[in-house]
Structure of F-box domain-containing protein:
Amino acid sequence: MAHSCIQLNDLPDEILVIIFKKLNNIILLYSLMGINKRLDKILHDSIFTSNLKLLNYSSYDSIYSLSNSMLDRFCLQILPKINNKIKSFNLEISSMKRILLSANYPNLFELGIFNIEKEAALCLVTRKDNFT
């Protein structure tokens, strides 16, 4: 059999969705969003955009923020394009303000905040000037 070179773009959409479902949607969006219109159309599906965990886990079960370069790309390029599809966020407290102010999220109904101290949590739910 002759060697053949099958590329990602050669696969049908259905196969790509099956493969993409097995991957971390944050890495998937970060790596493939903006490559071409076909991939963007697939990645805009609610399977990949409705529930976003914009944080990292260490091997010791610690939670920390995404890197600055990843946050830059998400806040400037990715989130503004999928903002109306996002229904749920899990965020690390140090990047929360930046992410939430990067776009309007009209369908957001769930927000998980990690690494937040009790006093800060109380301020978030009791004060009106949280983001000023």
